[in-house]
């Protein structure tokens, strides 16, 4: 019986790790989607990873203007990031 309880407890611990990993992967994916929208509008990135991936050679703004659907998608991304408790990252 004790062995079964230990195994059950371990499975809960490992399930938590799986959930944390899934959330981290989702956070990364959401951040990439957000950066792509910004990059498409010539945003000048501050984040080193974003600069490396998207570059700042053609950047021309710190305040891009987004279409209605883009603004809606960015709001969805930010809402999901908040829900997942993603680490706050500047672009």
Tell the overall outline: globular
* Tally of individual helices: 3
The overall number of domains is 1
Q: What value does the average pLDDT take?
A: 83
In angstroms, what separates the terminal alpha carbons? 52 Å
Element order: H for helix, E for strand: HHH
Radius of gyration, in Å, reads: 19 Å
Q: Structural class of the secondary elements?
A: mainly alpha
Instruction: Count the beta strands.
Output: 0
Proportion of beta-strand residues: under 5%
Main β-sheet: number of strands, strand sense, barrel status? none
Given as residue ranges, the uncertain stretches (5+ residues, pLDDT < 50) are: 1-18
The residue fraction in helices comes out at 55-70%
Report on this model:
The protein is mainly alpha-helical. The chain has one domain (24-91). 67% of the residues lie in helices and 0% in strands. It has helices spanning 2-39, 48-54, 68-83. Helix 1 (2-39) packs antiparallel against helix 3. Residues 1-18 have low confidence and may be disordered.
Question: What are its keywords?
Answer:
single chain; 91 residues; mainly alpha; 3 helices; globular
How does the SSE layout of this entry go?
Elements: H1 2-39, H2 48-54, H3 68-83
Helix pairs in contact: 1-3
Quick take:
With 91 residues, the protein is mainly α. Helix content is 67%, strand content 0%.
